[in-house]
Amino acid sequence: MSEEFLVNFTPQETRVALMQGGIVQELHIERTASRGLVGNVCLGRVVRVLPGMQSAFIDIGLERTAFLHVADIWEQRQNGHGGGNGHGGDGPKPIEKILSEGQSLIVQVLKDPIGTKGARLSTQISIAGRLLVYLPQEKHIGISQRIEGEAEREQLRGKLQQLVPADETGGFIVRTMAEKAGDEELANDIAYLRKMWAEAKNAAVSARPPALLYQDLTLGQRLLRDLVTPETSRIVIDSRENFHKLTAFAQEYMPQLAPLLTHYTGERPLFDLHGVEDEIQKALARRVDLKSGGYLIIDQTEAMTTIDVNTGGFVGLRNFDDTVFKTNLEAAQTIARQLRLRNLGGIIILDFIDMASEEHQAAVLAELNKALARDHTRMSVNGFTALGLVEMTRKRTRESLAHVLCEPCPTCGGRGEVKTARTMCYEVLRELLREARQFNAREYRVLAAPAVIDLFLDEESASLAMLSDFIGKPISLQAESGYTQEQFDIVLM
After folding, report:
1. Is the pTM of this model over 0.70?
2. Distances (CA, A) of 414 to 216, 302, 406, 479, 488
3. How far is residue 410 from each of residues 222, 413, 486, measured CA to CA in Å?
4. Choosing a second label site near 273 at 20 to 30 A (CA), which of 209, 282, 403, 493?
5. What gap in Å lies between CA 441 and CA 77, rounded to an integer?
């Protein structure tokens, strides 16, 4: 299916929308004040080594220390043989024998900080170009698994071996984009990657940790490097300055993409014209309506994301089983799109409507896998469990759309609900009794939200009068429009 990218630039942020068939499939947002860290190479300092967890906390200049597990430590094998993930010649070496507190270390960010978790690090450096990934610590040429033909794989390996000198210290991974690349394009990519790594190494010589040695490209540049596929028909950019910058970048590093770039000059905002702004608002909602009348409920928590499928107003044409089956089929397609659109990752539980027929279950699972095949993010899908749930995982490398654009509600603290006015009335009454036993005030004044005060003046007036008689002191009320429903104060007069 033909696809196009819409790119909206402002001084504060860059937004990229992937469109297929006129429908938004993916959204990427990068803010100038908080650019993503994945791919950055830093000179870090070991703050703490935890032998029990076989991990270490590394200071790379962020608010929270970053996390490095022993499995992500690259170390040359004994006797000068090839590299491995922290494995010496006699098996895995414990982290306390590799790292020590205060040690300087060159690391690369694998995952951005998410929620309360710090960034995830690796000491195995890789620098990505459009066609190749450079591995400065390894002498190895690998081929992307997406290039399946064995003859093509061998041809690419041979082509790269001819371009890389025998004394080259680093290795390369051939990306999918290189499948039809010529020698000149590959040579340009090799030169670019070597230059980037040389600059990072030179910076590390004089730097003091924590220090940034190499920063990954901007979102606009990464779009050209990583996201554009042979199916991409055009890239529409709404900023003249950035159109010229990206055109110059494309002409230098990936000239075959330059003709795809188009400058949008219309009066109406680009994202409004294509309905992207509306899709962003819908992608932040908990409920997603299906065309048939059914709907999804998506709940994102710290531990996992759950998606519940409901028939809603869809009654079907024949019988209940067909209604459920049709709703689940439509939901499978919508779920796949919502995962990409919202960038949901980690553990995901899908609660389809119960189906008695195993044939229907198999068809829904096949439809889900077919729809997920368009997603380039690594994932795994398990079949239906005994409870009729589908468990899946989707790799999480950056914050979800909701975490980028939203924050927990200051009123409910992210719970999604607040205590009722009546509950707050009873809390105020209990607090008044506690205050009266501790302090001998002349009068007690209650400051609370208007809804709570209204209830005290109406249905709970008798309860307030009873407490006033019991403590033998007058109680006055004062409505504060600035208070949330769960907020109150008691002033001693």
Report:
1. yes
2. 33, 11, 11, 25, 20
3. 35, 5, 11
4. 403
5. 76
